[in-house]
## 1
Amino acid sequence: MLLIPCPWCGPRDEAEFHYGGQAHVAYPENPAALSDEEWARYLFFRDNPEGRFAERWNHTAGCRRWFNAVRNTATNEIEAREVIA
Amino acid sequence: MTSRRMAGWQGEPVRFRFDGRDYEGVRGDTLASALLANGVRTVAASPALGRPRGIYAAWTEEPNALVRYGVEPMAQATTLDLTEGLDATSLRGRGRLSEEPDTSRYDAVHAHCDVLVVGAGPAGLAAAAAAAGTGARVIIADDRPVAGGSLPDTAETVGGVPGDEWAATTLAELGGRPDVRVLSRTSVFGYYDDNYLVAVERRGADAYSRERVWRIRARQVVLATGAHERPIAFAGNDRPGVMLAGSARAYANRHGVLPGARAVVFTTNDSAYAAARDLAAAGVEIAAIVDTRDTAGHAQDGTEVLTGHVVTAVGGDEGVSSVTVSGAGHVDREIEADLLLVSGGWNPLVHLFSQAGGELRHDDATGSFVPGPVRQAVEVAGAARGVFTLAGCLEDGAAAGARAAEAAGFRMGDAFRIPETPAEEPAEPAAHLWLVEAADYATHFVDLQRDVTVADVMKATGAGLRSVEHVKRYTTAGTAHDQGKLSGVLTSAVVGHALGLPLADLGTTTFRAPYVPVGFSTLAGRDRGALHDPVRTTSLHEWHVAYGAPFENVGQWKRPWYYPRAGEDMEAAVLRECHAVRTSVGAMDASTLGKIDVQGPDAAEFLDRLYTNMMSTLKVGAIRYGVMCRPDGMVFDDGTVIRLADDRFLVTTTTGNAAAVLDWMEEWLQTEWPHLRVYCTSVTEHWATVALAGPGSRDVLAGLAPGLAVDAASFPFMTWRDTEVAGLAARVCRISFSGELAYEINVNAWDGLALWEAVMGTGTVTPYGTETMHVLRAEKGYPIVGQDTDGTVTPADLGMDWVVSKKKPDFIGKRSFARADTSRPDRKHLVGLLPADPGRLLPEGAHLVETGTLPEPPVPTLGHVTSSYRSAVLGSTFALALVSGGRDRMGEELYVPLGDELVPVTVTSHILYDPEGARRDG
Ligand SMILES: [Zn+2]
């Protein structure tokens, strides 16, 4: 059970959060301008590194805010987090 | 039967039954010690081979003595408190659940502390005392009923008093401190991320809750979990009467029980000599000490020590009667004995440390694995890290406790004074012998509970397995209660022997929670039955109950399914309800539909991005049906949107998807479109909604709402009006999910029952449930998201191209409709199916094939049935199905394989009733 530092509520049990996958995968500016391959990359391709990974979390059972955090997938240590403005 | 209790041992008598026979033990006994005291040697038959088995150990590492009692299917006799009237039976073969329901209460506790100490032996007590002295909040958890760890087993003295007394006093002092919590009979069984540990506290049948699960978040952890004595694999090492030497010492010192009359001790190290001394003092005759080393330990005067010897055979089928020993250059000797005590050295108990993510390191001195580096905030102290002297454990524990408290931010405090202990003899180095070599390994057991032998392990390595993880799964060694306690390192060593690899290179299998078995009922706690999940009911619920409606679970909601009249079964009731709606008027409780209030200056823009169709052009006072997709173009939810004001909408969702849709809206607003000024609020439970449907619904509404102009011109389809219905403030929406003229009347949830009773009070309205609603909507080909769709279905697949805007530059999912995949001609389309036999009801989920005889497998399947009902108005059964290229198959005959039968069906449009939509205006 990870202890996840919500930027708004402080450290809380993992069970209060919803995982949101890789961070910084922005919705494309103009999807119509993308090739099928580029669009498929947005839809289906995500990184799966061993080590530092920027990912999204939502404090669903708390403040319900989304935020980003950098977690080391090998150790589960959360090294940094950022508010989504 | 002879008593094997030491003369003069005091104790309050306790009567108990075992396998139908009556016995007497004393308070403080475990079932195992009481059985040994009564001379019971054989307590089990091994599960695979049916070999007789005796008590082998004295605590949680016991592999043989499993019993059933009460609701417990597989308890270890060695950890089971002897209580008056205990009635236990030995487990012969596999465990099986009690037929009786478990009526005990189980609870959960969440706790936080600065330092959690696991284990109340010398190291754990010293750690807790040192940490508590700094003012840190300390929890000390110990799985035994009495404190002291191994001290009551070894009868050593601490601070000039017997060790168990010192431990009890120290623990009582700790318990008296305001910031210390003592958890006895509490096994910490799991160590998870960020110092989250889970323990089970066994409080007993008389306590308010029989067991409690503790979920503890600790700043720092000290593991003082001790060590397990190692078995040795030799021929016949499973006979009743073979016992770990330290366990026999524990029975003598802790319980005053002699596990045999005449013992041979087989050892690789000095600890068994101390056991032999204590047992001899208690009255056991020590026939010989068989030491694998060339140098003897410190034996008592007069005890024969056979150095350089091993045990090569055990005589006696039902239990040890003799022990054969061999040594190089010596003639084999058969020694008469009824007890064979074994010590292969000690394995630090590293289970929790390993679960914490700690790396294990092979240690030459102990011949085992000890804690290495770890990233979590944890200290290991005492025997758990290979410190095997009493003085060493006290010092090590105190230092670990102080370091943990300091790391948690506590500095100054009362220093813990390490108590005096008697001088200990310097130990001779231990030998590391795992296996007595032989020509045949069929009775060299490595896991007694699983009946796994050295021969089985060699069969695994002979089959090419190299990893100890694979060998574990091939042989099952180290599974069940054992979890590597006795068999883990032994199995690795035997694999190493077979492959000629050093133990250090092989390592151990991964240690996983739970360290000891934990009941599902304990883990469930109060979260069972009605408390397992919230149950949501509408404000009309009591009426549905009173009218005998069975309920359907939709998410957490209880929805009335149908309203049977006397003598009606479900089929008859649903056909009657359907007929009433199609020909007259019916009413349904639609309160469970999800409702989200969306407001703000950018609300219209927001909904345009979310729905596939245009919402910003909706006029105030009007209603539009909409579909939401995921970015991949697949349908996610559908419902209606009503415009309340320029900057305010009310969105409805499917009943089961309301929370997911709100999450979805918030996610896009927060992560992609934070500049949009939109606020979403769930208002599902603010409203009670009654759907009034059927050609007679206009007259019923007119009667209840005299102030409302209900004619089709004044109140057109897909508009809403605020008015009074039955004297209640109401919002009436003219929408239909049945194809009939219909209204949804929304009132404050508090007024829901009054509205419903007013509707029913007209005497002309038939209440209908969700089943009728499903039939009516399916006759019209309206899909239910999640039933007729499964996350692989686009609006076009549903025949709903019309709901996808061609004008909007973008919306979620739009780009995916231009992917090659979403326009494949063989995509599965929603179609209707009419069975050739109009009485034949197809099961939902049934597959469809193209031909009337099955070809050789694999048989290509064209799709499956998603909804299937009997229709009153069609006079036939019918189904909806997702079928590959379905829209190009109109009129084709397909087949549904059911058992040995191929049921013919005809493909039709998914809209089976009133395709021209003539009925919606009444
Ligand atoms: Zn929060």
## 2
Amino acid sequence: MARIRAFENAAEIASQGGVQAWGLKTSAKPALVRGPLHLSTGQEAVAAGVCANLTRKDLLTSTHRGHGHTLAKGADVDRMMAELFGKATGSNRGKGGSMHIADFSVGMLGANGVVAAGMPIAVGAAQALKIRGQPEIVACFFGDGAVNRGPFLEALNWAVVYGLPVLFVCEDNRISATTPTGPMTGGAGAAARAESIGVPAVRVDGNDVEAVDAAAARLVAEVRAGSGPRLLHALTYRFKGHVSVDPGAYRDPAEVARALESDPLTIARDRLVARGVAADDIAAIDAAAAAEIDAAMAAAAAAPLPDPASAYTDIQNTGAGQWR
Amino acid sequence: MALMSYSQAAATALAEAMRADRNVVALGEDLGRGGIFAQYRGLQQEFGADRVIDTPISESTIMGAAVGMALAGLRPVVEMRVVDFALCAIDELVNQAAKNRYMFGGQGRVPLVVRMPIGLWTASAAQHSQSLEAWFAHIPGLTVVVPSAPADNYGLLHSALESGDPVVYLEHKELWGDEGEVEPGLRVPLGSARVLRAGSDVTLVSWSKAVRTCVDAASELASAGVSAEVIDLRTIWPWDRATVLGSAARTGALVVVHEAVQVGGFGAEIAASAAEETGCRVKRVGAPRIPSGYSKPLEDESRVTVAQVVAAARSLAAPGVHP
Ligand SMILES: Cc1ncc(C[n+]2csc(CCOP(=O)(O)OP(=O)(O)O)c2C)c(N)n1
């Protein structure tokens, strides 16, 4: 969690002056990170609690807000940060950026620019694991907004029909871009919908990393045992705007202030202190995370940009070379 | 005349149309907060949440419901945010909206305007940068609009709303902040191009953001003694054959320029038509057939440049080659 928070804070600063939508004027100052960044600040406990129960070989699909999932799955921080900087040393060689961050070497099959698009991919990957007789499972992260797209229903149903090893994880931060999800969603949301088509679901406080870990442990065990898909519905809060340059002015400041009081990192820290862990030991965790991210920033800043010729690689084999 | 940004011009036209006709409604994600490019700013406050409708993230139903709304008497404006997400609603657009009038023997009409911004948008990578206008031009039943300037965005949106059939309305994501004079009440007829600069040696045809590239290229060509005519098509279906072919017949040389991938792009249609009808020499300038990269050097490979347009024009209009 500390590493995710440090990563998000550093990325946020590096993106200031970057691309601006949201009706804001583009700043003249070039940012170190040019592209849109969807920060998972405040949602760290979901990524950490779930991924603690996955092996390196398990697979994971993510959303546009995927830094936390990627880090928690064990991706290399230097390569991630370099990707955000658009450098040749990035995990996607500068081709994808934050919104498409991926590290297949640790089973992280990619963030996604299209809401809910990871869900059918997750069930397909799970079907492949099953057909090939592999012991791994797939974790499929999605946001509360995704439950209103058709692929949500289709993917859950598919996973039930074929009895697939998938853990669906709804990261419910209660908002979709600028729109509160509640009034846009009939019924009680992801968990209720999952149960209605035969996917057992558990609701959990997504800011309590121990609770997430415990619930995920149970569900992952069931999925690994071949019981079919499960869904974890984790309630959390998006601390920042939709993208890093969005001040989020459409939200009630009182609501934001209240949410900041249940910061998952503070909750975890307080609990550790209450159990007798020395404040110094906790500070050392934060310091180590900060040092790791600082080093990643420095390495990313120093790394070379991709050769323009690489714009023409990794597209397709057939017809490669014929660009016009 | 009023100075407006490209996004304000569209919001103004839509507000006027909504005031004039209670059946005009808008629907899409985040519209209540003005839309992500401020192109709906103030509209929900003025017209209420029943007419400026916040929707769930449900592109196929946004589009499909709009078809139903249109059949039942409304004149919906659909917001798809970026053309890339409209691909989640392609059946509803291509098989339903576009086919309805014909397939049911003219019983129904689908007066629908679908806004789906196109184009590169700094570091937005492969799923938020596409220019897919040629796909829609290929579909019978759809009108395809590609405004490049605030006045056109105002006048064309009005005409699209009045057309009575489905219109794919493709604003460009890097033009929202551009400002220009807009004349209240202006209508830009669908299918009418605008000649931005008269010239006699070569015709440059373009639309959307690439029009700027052509204007800049024309200035550079002028200093090299080549007189270029610049045409902004403004709608690619229908396209203004008379203006383009007339110009090509006079200059004998036509370069068509677009930000979309050149292969299978709409430039091919224009170039082939011009060559068939006038015998002029033609060149196309479009993006290579590569996905848009995130990092700047990769993204830049997808951008059409003034230098490319100048080179193409000079290769056709070289002194001595001119008829
Ligand atoms: C199909 C599709 N529609 C719209 C968008 C634009 N969009 C990007 S993120 C987002 C909100 C998603 O909300 P949610 O799923 O709750 O995830 P969160 O952003 O809260 O993490 C929207 C509407 C998109 N990327 N894809």
